[in-house]
TrEMBL record:
The gene is acs. One of its GO terms (molecular function) is ATP binding. Its EC number is 6.2.1.1. Acetylated. Deacetylation by the SIR2-homolog deacetylase activates the enzyme. It comes from Acidiphilium acidophilum. The modification N6-acetyllysine is found at K606. Residues 24-80 form the Acetyl-coenzyme A synthetase N-terminal domain. This is Acetyl-coenzyme A synthetase.
Amino acid sequence: MSHPERVKVMPEIAAHALVNRAQYDDMAARAAADPDAFWAAEKDRIDWITSPTKIKNTSFTGDVSIKWFEDGVLNASVNCLDRHLATRGDQVAIIWEGDDPNESRHVTYRELHADVCRMANVLVALGAKKGDRITIYMPMIVEAAVALLACARIGAIHSVVFGGFSPDSLANRIQDCNSNILITADEGRRGGRKVPLKTNVDAALKSCPMLKSVLVVKATGTSIAMTAGRDVWYHEAAAAVPAECPPEPMKAEDPLFILYTSGSTGKPKGVLHTTGGYMVWASFTHQYVFDYHEGEIFWCTADVGWVTGHTYIVYGPLANGATTLMFEGVPNYPDTSRVWQVVDKHNVNIFYTAPTAIRALMRDGDAPVKRTSRASLRILGSVGEPINPEAWYWYSHVVGDDRCPVVDTWWQTETGGTLITGLPGAIDQKPGSAGLPLPGVKPLIVDAEGRELHGATEGNLCLADSWPGQMRTVYGDHDRFIQTYFSTFPGYYFSGDGARRDADGYYWITGRVDDVINVSGHRMGTAEVESALVAHPKVAEAAVVGFPHEVKGQGIYAYVTLISGEDPTDDLRRELIIWVRKEIGPIAAPDEIHWAPGLPKTRSGKIMRRILRKIAANETESLGDISTLADPSVVEDLVANRAA
Ligand code: PRX
């Protein structure tokens, strides 16, 4: 189907938008000309205990130091809760929609404030102090948001681990940040199935002696083992503490949270975000990117275990006094209309999801969508991976009935919030393009040597200067921070993404240029999957690459060399897939396993991934130069045995 390449700003949206094109141009010009003045004004969207006088103090060279609002003092939970009590204490802060369509909850700002204070007091009673790392391993229930905010209230640093990760992945993250307290639930629910969170915790903690206390929220009420002296039921502890807890005054650069994310090498790294800049960025981007108006109902479908959930379920919407919707379930349960039924049930105005979900829903056709009204919808958002124009138009036309702008949002765990997007009231959309930089964001494209390319061009996507929501360091490993982001192209923050810029200045993200793959909008390091595979006793060697996948965006394609004497059977294939699911989590399970008697290596022993990617993508006619390989016949063999 052919579609227009440019979709103009809708006049009825522009007329009421917070930012129209002239205002966007003006903001961008002011932010570029005088960042200090621009952000000094924007910082006032946040309540400060001590208002900062120093605004920006950042350097991308040498030791790399990023400080924003450094002499300011604030508390993130106060900004999400206390400051709203006088004006909107009885407004709903969180609408919770259960996995079961008959279950939902409405929690007002006043109730949320009391819940957060109670959990904060329980944490203090367990010995939590400012600066402690508290791990959160929760299903999508209200208490997950309460847990984040309770940590923020007492100045503890939360580290949320996605509930779909395995005990091993959880243990690694607990050990890396030396966490002493963990908040979890008995079980989670997803699509009618149960997720055994507490059982996973028990398994993980066998290798985590530093972890002293486990706070357990009763979610499903299933019977679970409780370890005396370590495990505490939240509802029992909460009954014994007051519903008021004084907020800890935090310096702007005191850490707010750690969130582990995959890179090209090694174990996932702990991305560290601090309090002041992150809160300003979360509030600023939530308001402008979604053209959020007072009273609107905002639904971000991410899990709180990912950065999207942190910024656009919890901190951004709550800082702005919005009503945020938390959904425990999955889009196709009990049926494929579920998402739109939830939209109608709760009158959702702004809906934010990932292209993979759109493509999956699109496969079920228009009928499940058209059975619902969706009249409340005003703005649609996309995040996590490039959205293909076909999915964009379906989202716009079938879901949005051609009256809701679709805003793509490019960002990363490291960036804290959106950097490149098309503000709905200001910027014409080009489906497939992420859009233009937000005010104060300075993207640039560099070639392989780090030279800036001008005009319409393609290359590596970098940022020339800092923005308030930028990560500050890799927790416990500042050298890794410098190495990962600032050494490839000195002086710039390197995103790891490739991008094209067109003649109108729009950015088109072409995908990762490193060994990170993006599976259903989730980041996975190929090295992580490889190390899980080689941990299997029958595997001698493994190489993992991404390949184009119709629904997931990218799938995981694993080349596996077995130890001699082992037979490549279908049973073993299944066993390896289950093995990786257990080692890392279901999101890391390979889609394809290709038995490889040998892997293409250079004479120095480096695996030529470029060739493996081509074979995985079935582009075997364009393998390029293979003459530098130690044994070119390996390639012929792989091509001949390509998985069907
Ligand atoms: O490759 C880009 C892709 O997702 C990566 C960041 O993943 P993560 O840190 O898990 O954060 C996901 C949610 C922000 C990026 O390096 N990505 C994210 N959003 C887009 C995108 N690629 C294209 N278009 C997007 N809108």
